[in-house]
Amino acid sequence: MSTEHFDVLIIGAGLSGVGMACRLAIVCPGKRVGILERRQAIGGTWDLFRYPGVRSDSDMFTFGFGFRPWHDLKVLADGPSIRDYVVATAREYAIEERIRFGVQVVHAAWSSAAAMWTVDARDDAGAVHRFSASFVVGCTGYYAYDQGYVPDFPQRERYEGRFVHPQHWPADLDWRGKHVVVIGSGATAITLVPALAREAAHVTMVQRSPGYVMSVPSRDAISAALLHVLPKRWVYAMARWRNIKLQRLLYRAAMRWPARVRALLLAGVRRGLRGETSMADFSPGYDPWTQRLCVVPDHDLFEALREGRASVRTDTVAGFEAGGVRLASGATIDADIVIAATGFQLQVLGGMTLDIDGVPCEPGRLLTYKGVLLEGVPNMAVLFGYINASWTLKVDLAAQYVCRLLQRMDEHGARVAVPRAPAAEALATCIMDALHAGYVLRGEAQLPRQGREGPWRVTHQYETDRRVLVTEPIDDPALDFR
């Protein structure tokens, strides 16, 4: 079997992988970089998800790349626009030609003798392709692409209508004039409901418990005004800076004054509903930001509820009948289509396995170093975004750190860099311990562990990460160069 070698091999050609490759093209243009992508297109999440209304749940000024800012007044962009943005970025930096499409990485093995990774990937026909790399960067996100999460609903086999998970939306699904039930209350559910309600007979969102929902303008009026007097580059840079500050202010306020932030968020919901829907359906029993905050553009969800095109039921699915969903309260909701917006299956490194000198390595037992490298794992980075802000903010900082690390290795004449954690540094909690979402609780064992302090603890704080990853020296007693 022939083996193609790369200085840096990136796993995944979504937002994170393209961003990493672009940073390398800018800072380390002499490196031979390859990208392995299991799908046949660039975009990752934004190529996979095709359900109606799919859009970002973070503002695009902070969700876009720092080196190629989002230049549009649209605050929450739709999925196709985001996919086009990622593809255009890849083409601008000549990244597309570096991608091997249709190959899924299944295993990576490190050899200390060769100071190199051997990476095996399988194509759609089952053939194995082998690559070698001096450095590997995992950019696969944190959920499984093959299958979304669907609870074990009782008597689901009785249901005679269409049952759909948004992760694999059927191209032939026609909801016009039909009764639709959406099970769930997260970002996907609150996006689907108003989008479907425009043409469906009625859409009912069934939620086990409420979540926090905040409405934001769909268009940035401040930037629109500034474009009349300032250069475009300045305006969009200011929008990015402003929104980073606002995100951080809201999160810090929620941690310090949860009751006040809760009152502020619920007041916004009350204005959106205008008394047409019970506030009980939008009053969570937990503090803000202990689960991710859901964002809607221009009150679109509340408008659908006010106009009677959609409704919310806070209840538990007890089972299915031939024509609909039976709730724990005893009520039955007729449904031609049921959509299980019930989340995803958490997965680390796209499901690939690792070994180091023949010894299996499980990321769920390791610490992360500065939230980028894995304890005891040579020459590997894993890019993981924020849970309390735009994903890309952290991924871009991590990509810059990887470039700085590679430059420093070249300066040292080092072939290997591996972080070494002190004894008893690991805690029992995972790196997403601040988020109490269902997918975290289900897949917590797969995620790397939290450390007690310093570079071994993931803080999810942009200001701290910017200093640690972009400004502080690379050299560190905990980082072993060989």
TrEMBL record:
<keyword id="KW-0521">NADP</keyword>
<dbReference type="InterPro" id="IPR051820">
    <property type="entry name" value="FAD-binding_MO"/>
</dbReference>
<keyword id="KW-0503">Monooxygenase</keyword>
<comment type="similarity">
    <text>Belongs to the FAD-binding monooxygenase family.</text>
</comment>
<dbReference type="Pfam" id="PF00743">
    <property type="entry name" value="FMO-like"/>
</dbReference>
<keyword id="KW-0274">FAD</keyword>
<protein>
    <submittedName>
        <fullName>NAD(P)/FAD-dependent oxidoreductase</fullName>
    </submittedName>
</protein>
<keyword id="KW-0285">Flavoprotein</keyword>
<keyword id="KW-0560">Oxidoreductase</keyword>
<dbReference type="GO" id="GO:0050661">
    <property type="term" value="F:NADP binding"/>
</dbReference>
<dbReference type="GO" id="GO:0004499">
    <property type="term" value="F:N,N-dimethylaniline monooxygenase activity"/>
</dbReference>
<dbReference type="InterPro" id="IPR036188">
    <property type="entry name" value="FAD/NAD-bd_sf"/>
</dbReference>
<dbReference type="Pfam" id="PF13450">
    <property type="entry name" value="NAD_binding_8"/>
</dbReference>
<dbReference type="InterPro" id="IPR020946">
    <property type="entry name" value="Flavin_mOase-like"/>
</dbReference>
<dbReference type="GO" id="GO:0050660">
    <property type="term" value="F:flavin adenine dinucleotide binding"/>
</dbReference>
